[in-house]
Design brief:
Layout (H helix, E strand, L loop, with lengths): L2 E7 L3 H11 L7 E8 L2 E8 L2 H9 L8 E7 L14 E2 L5 E9 L2 H10 L9 H16 L3 H9 L4 E9 L6 E6 L4 E5 L2 E5 L11 E4 L4 E5 L6 E4 L5 E2 L4 E2 L4 H5 L6 H7 L1 H9 L3 E2 L4 E2 L2 H5 L1 H5 L3 E6 L1 H18 L3 E5 H4 L10 E7 L5 H12 L3 E6 L5 H5 L2 E4 L12 H21 L4 H22 L2 H11 L4 E6 L4 H15 L2 E6 L16 E6 L5 H12 L4 E7 L4 H5 L2 E5 L7 H19 L18
Parallel strand pairs: 18-19, 18-20, 20-21, 21-22, 23-24, 23-25, 25-26, 26-27
Antiparallel strand pairs: 1-4, 1-10, 2-3, 2-4, 5-6, 6-7, 7-8, 8-12, 9-10, 9-11, 11-15, 12-13, 13-14, 16-17
Bound molecules: fructose -6-phosphate.
Length: 615
């Protein structure tokens, strides 16, 4: 996630901005930049890489003494990590400067319109489009910056947290946000701005958090002015006194990044679906599919290669694609695939899935398939990562940076991308009727909100964790779409709590694992109403008669499983294909709370690395 820092006031801004950017490093980023200004003089410095490199680049310059500074760390979404894509961005006239967090969905349309009016672009970013759109509005309406920003934002679809500066009016900064937070720090001499409060915690503890759809004018010496972007109404902002320490703020008040990232899932999912799922129009829009329409229409087979959690998402993808698009899918551990001389046809589509985009085995599997002539369509989270660069085409998950070593939001968003791919393929192949597709799109559209309500069940999950955290082993069972979720639940528990856990297709239990069941064995069973419910109920009966401790993940209003299970967590009723998106959440919470109760290092479990770049 990008980071924003700005300062306007009597203090020297550059150290504030650079130290602030350093504090935002925890958010993850691939390039950084600063802008400083003194009267008519301005300087922009950008680097691909870390804030340390930015400091070095600045040390080689004669730096202005200034009154205003803006800084940004960029996590690439539109365009690779590159000097020209790094922020701050400057408008065509050179008058307006912008730093931006978020995604402008309709940037393509705005860009075309601006190009027709003679605007030129140096970068591939949506942010550069935004600053030029503001410039165009300012010119045509002949208004001050604040008004121009407000009018321009009313024409923008997407999410943003922005800071804008007009060099013709150096005493003012304009900030605004929608879906991407902006914190404003106040002191007697000036204003601090951050994407959270960490950058300015040393300077002030008085902070205003802008609400969504708000715009503020920051003019040192004057009272802050906050307005609603859509209806221009004046707001009275609440000044809060921050009591949190730095670490608390970086984790958004959560004790661990993993917990924060579990909570971020509804929003991560919204980002994944944004601009792609057009439920009202009954359409899925994936631009890379248009470019390669023939490849997808003619695909004989899809091979998914991945490792760990991403492999589990791949398994869900297999169920989705085979069921909706009727194209055969194979899901391979990348580490096995690369060494087993696999058969690859030129009309195969190979989908490497990777959060980091750097996993050595997945990369090697990709290269092997590419050399054999297959079309490589990647699913990655990190923009510009090695895997994303090696593919012919693909989709980003837009989960934002994942810092906890145990993958959470990456998994959910990978499943969402695979759902979009499956439904798009179904549309192309005509394997689902228009009305069926439409129904599914509406349902998918509602998942983020429902996931938000599901988070409220976490206290119940915590109670279960308290009961079973001392168990030495756990079994996870699921069928169909939820078999991979059982695998993922078991992996999460192993990773962060060091409890031995196994995931199994429920019906396989009687072929071996049933021997393990006794009163000391917690068995987590995903038993949603849609999808082999009766069969799972009989599996549960088998566990009960062997005295296993049953934890059911059930659909809302379930009664049969509740009668037999020791504990039950309800998830929203949904079509079977969407149950993984819901069933995963309680399993993540369960492993999290168990790990905490066992006093384990949740964010950095022993022996594990976030990115496995070696074999
Ligand atoms: C588990 C986990 C790992 C990764 C695996 C692949 O929580 O994080 O199993 O899923 O190392 O990593 P990526 O997706 O980066 O290729």
């Amino acid at each position: 996630m990008c980071g924003i820092v700005a300062y306007i006031g009597a203090k020297e801004p550059l150290p504030i901005v650079l130290d602030g950017l350093q504090r935002l490093e925890y958010r993850g980023y691939d390039s950084a930049g600063v802008f400083i200004s003194e009267g008519t003089k301005q300087q922009i410095t950008k680097v691909v890489g870390k804030v340390a490199a930015l400091r070095e680049a600045l040390s080689e310059k004669e730096v202005l003494t200034s009154k205003l500074g803006m800084g940004h760390t960029r996590w690439a979404t539109h365009g690779q990590p590159a000097h020209e894509n790094a922020h701050p961005h400057v408008s065509n006239s050179g008058d307006l400067i912008l730093i931006h967090n978020g995604i402008i969905e309709n940037y393509d349309i705005l860009k075309k319109e601006l190009q027709q009016r003679g605007y030129q672009f140096q970068s591939e970013t949506d942010s550069e489009v935004l600053i030029n759109w503001i410039e165009e509005v300012q010119k045509t309406e002949n208004v001050k910056l604040g008004k121009a920003v407000q009018l321009a934002l009313n024409q923008v679809i997407g999410a943003y947290g922005i800071v804008v500066y007009d060099r013709r009016n150096p005493e003012e900064l304009v900030v605004a946000c929608l879906g991407s937070p902006i914190a404003i720090g106040l002191d007697k001499e000036g204003f601090f701005v951050g994407s959270d409060a960490t950058p300015f915690l040393d300077h002030t503890r008085e902070v205003i958090y802008l609400d969504d759809n708000e715009l503020a004018l920051l003019q040192p010496g004057k009272t802050i002015q906050v307005r609603k972007i859509d209806d221009d109404s004046l707001q009275t902002p609440t000044v809060q006194q921050l009591k949190w320490n730095l670490e608390n703020i970086q984790k958004g008040g959560f004790p661990h990044f993993m917990l924060k990232e579990i909570h971020e899932q509804p929003n991560a999912l919204r980002d994944t679906l944004r601009g792609r799922l057009l439920a009202e129009e009954g359409k899925i829009q994936i631009s890379s599919f248009n470019e390669h329409h023939q490849k997808f229409a003619n695909a004989r087979r899809i091979i998914i290669v991945a490792c760990g959690t991403s492999w589990h998402a791949g398994l869900v993808g297999e169920y989705l694609i085979e069921s909706f698009a009727r194209i055969p899918v194979e899901v391979e551990y990348a580490s096995e695939f690369r060494y087993r001389n696999p058969i690859i046809y030129p009309d195969d589509i190979v989908i490497p899935i990777s959060q980091s985009g750097e996993t050595a085995d997945t990369l090697a599997a990709l290269k092997l398939a590419k050399a054999a002539g297959a079309f490589i369509y990647g699913v990655c989270n990190v923009v510009g990562s090695t895997i994303s660069r090696e593919t012919h085409s693909g989709m980003y998950t837009h989960a934002g940076p994942e810092i906890g070593v145990a993958s959470t939001k990456a998994f959910i968003t990978q499943i969402a991308v695979l759902t979009l791919i499956a439904l798009k393929l179904a549309e192309i192949k005509g394997t689902q009727s228009k009305s069926e597709l439409r129904q599914l799109l509406f349902e998918l559209d509602s998942v983020p909100d429902q996931l938000e309500s599901l988070i409220e069940q976490k206290e119940k999950v915590k109670e279960v964790a308290e009961k079973i955290h001392a168990a030495p082993n756990c079994l996870y069972l699921g069928r169909g779409y939820n078999f991979p979720v059982a695998l993922e639940g078991a992996l999460k528990l192993k990773e962060i709590s060091y409890i031995h856990a196994e995931g199994y297709p429920a019906a396989e239990m009687k072929h071996g694992p049933i021997a393990l069941i006794d009163e000391a064995m917690p068995v987590i069973v995903i038993a949603t109403r849609k999808g082999h419910y009766e069969k799972i109920v009989s599996n549960i009966q088998e566990i009960k008669s062997r005295k296993g401790v049953i934890i059911g993940i059930v659909s809302q209003g379930d009664s049969a499983v509740k009668e037999m299970a020791n504990y039950c967590i309800e998830i929203p009723e949904s079509s079977e294909c969407f149950t993984p998106l819901f069933a995963t959440l309680p399993l993540q919470f369960l492993s999290y709370y168990i790990a905490v109760l066992r006093d384990c290092n949740v964010d950095q479990p022993r022996n594990l690395a976030k990115s496995v770049t070696v074999e």
